[in-house]
Amino acid sequence: MNKLNKNPLISNGSIRLVGTFDTNKIISSYKELGIDVIRFFKGEQNISLYKCEKTGYRFYYPFDSIGDAEFYKDLSLNRENYYSTRWEHLEIIDTFKSDEKVLEIGSGFGAFLNLLKSKNIEAEGLELNPEAIKQCKDLGLKIHNELIDTFSKKNTEQFDVVCYFQVLEHVTNVHEFIKASLKTLKVGGKLVIGVPNSNPYLFVNDKYHTLNLPPHHAGLWNSSSLRALEEIFDVKLESINYEPLYKTYTEFLNAYCRNSNIIISTSLSIFNKIVPKILKKVLCRFIKGRNILVVFRKGAI
């Protein structure tokens, strides 16, 4: 594998190698989920993880190890509720106004578009998964089988809100993707982004967390890297919220105990047996949950 010298978020921005991953382990992990991902690694022994020095954004390389439409079709068939209504959908929808026009990029099977429809909010979506597109059309939703880069050229400043939930972490060319999405947004409009929260508590001790690796994820975002978008694009951060840890507390605690050192693991297990409610209250207070929801406002060009 050739060494990477391109930063996908900032042109000519410095990057450094921060980790490597054994592809055989990755392939085995996905096999346990019933998904064959051998084709994405093309004989590579390792996948590299790089970090943008300016923003803290981390991303995997080679870029062609990231999933295609067929991969997401397989994933949706093997993972129940993969495209279901999410925390961030319910968190943000009441902030939308009835006279706003909304574009969702990566609409999946139409969970959020359907919520918008139920509130009589005009919306349309972009999606590449053929099965998802069919279901959206069956639901009477306005959906386009089109990339944002192509769509933006015909729809400049047409939307009051542009949103993408659990999408940006799957994108390799993140700068071009965000730039194109902003092109469709009116000046003063809102850009809403929901991504997994790749903070240390959730992922450092679970390096081979299957769905946080290629071909599922292309990049890892946290609050710092999201805030840094203000320095790259003509946007102003309006809000940042985290999914409460209690919503996935049991899953978090099990993974944290399983992947921590023996001292931490034993201590948590003991506290969870003796004072489970207190432990949960403390951890949920000090540790952010697994997803981040940010809202930016597009400024004058």
UniProtKB/TrEMBL annotation:
Protein name in UniProt: Class I SAM-dependent methyltransferase
Any matching Pfam family: Methyltransf_23
Organism expressing this protein natively: Pseudotamlana carrageenivorans
